[in-house]
Design a protein that fits this description.
Elements lengths: L2 H8 L5 H14 L9 H21 L1 H7 L12 H18 L5 H20 L6 H20 L6 H20 L19 H7 L6 H19 L6 H10 L1 H11 L3 H17 L7
Length: 280
């Protein structure tokens, strides 16, 4: 693997379209309109995600040495020090991009950065770590929402909670990727947490996006829970790509079918990129 491809893998660039759709949905849910002013928030969220992924691999280097020795750091293809430095630099640069935002957005960005670092350094052996990972994704909605409107529509808060629950559920699944069988499937119920909010405010325009999201999640659960067809890595990668489908449903519920279609395009892009660069 070439050096540039190693760094693409470490940064999980295949999942970035789901971050972009998070920013789009968060902006729309808050009552804002995506435009040039959204670009710094989009770039900051991108850098936060990539920085967090780099720090995650650096912090997991000892575990990877036992369970995934082929990973870039334990295999010696890149040093932990370099990955730590790059991850910290990306987080810092993301913070700098937010300096022109209003105080509420700045606070949301700072809280998101703290949550990312807390997860990276303390997730191993902590049963509640999937909830912290979920908070990181929900925080992207809040960051985008506060940047779009200092007093955003209440829907953005409920959507952030729903997204956090969904990501917590898939993070629980990701923690079991290396197990021969899935153990204790009840936390996967969190994947359905967005449904009550989506159904409560459901419009005809949002219905196709909701059905697409639900159908995709059920398909990925098939890879996870059926012993004869178990492919945990495919399931987890697919559930990550499915974040963009959730964004599509929320965007349509916020009144933007165009936003929903853009988020579906982000899903298709993430699913395609994951075939070239692993999403987990």
């Amino acid at each position: 693997m070439s050096a540039w491809r190693i760094w693409l893998s470490l940064r999980r660039v295949s999942n970035l379209p789901t971050v972009w759709s998070n920013v789009l949905a968060g902006t729309l849910l808050a009552g804002g309109s995506p435009g040039p002013a959204t670009l710094p928030v989009l770039l900051a969220a991108t850098l936060f995600y990539e920085g967090g992924m780099l720090l995650n691999d650096a912090c997991d280097r000892d575990t990877d040495a036992r369970e995934r020795p082929e990973r870039p750091i334990p295999s010696g293809r890149v040093s932990a020090r370099a990955v730590f430095a790059a991850g910290g630099a990306l987080l810092g640069l993301g913070g700098l991009l937010l300096l022109g935002q209003n105080p509420a957005a700045l606070a949301a960005g700072a809280a998101l950065a703290v949550a990312i670092v807390a997860y990276d350094f303390h997730h191993k052996g902590v049963a509640s770590s999937p909830a912290l990972m979920g908070a990181c994704r929900g925080g992207v909605y809040l960051l985008a929402g506060f940047a779009a409107a200092p007093s955003p529509e209440p829907l953005v808060y409920w959507a952030a909670l729903a997204l956090a629950g969904y990501v917590a559920g898939l993070s629980y699944a990701a923690k079991q990727e290396n197990l021969a069988e899935f153990r204790g499937s009840w936390p996967l119920a969190l994947l359905a947490l967005p449904l009550p909010w989506l159904i409560a405010g459901l419009s005809w325009a949002a219905l196709p996006f909701l059905l697409l999201f639900a159908g995709w999640v059920l398909r990925m659960l098939g890879f996870l829970l059926r012993p004869a067809h178990r492919d945990a890595r495919r399931a987890v990668s697919g559930l990550i790509a499915g974040i963009a489908l959730l964004d599509a449903a929320f965007a349509a519920e916020a009144g933007s079918v165009a936003g929903g279609l853009a988020a579906v395009a982000a899903f298709l892009l993430a699913d395609r990129w994951q075939r070239r660069v692993a999403g987990t």
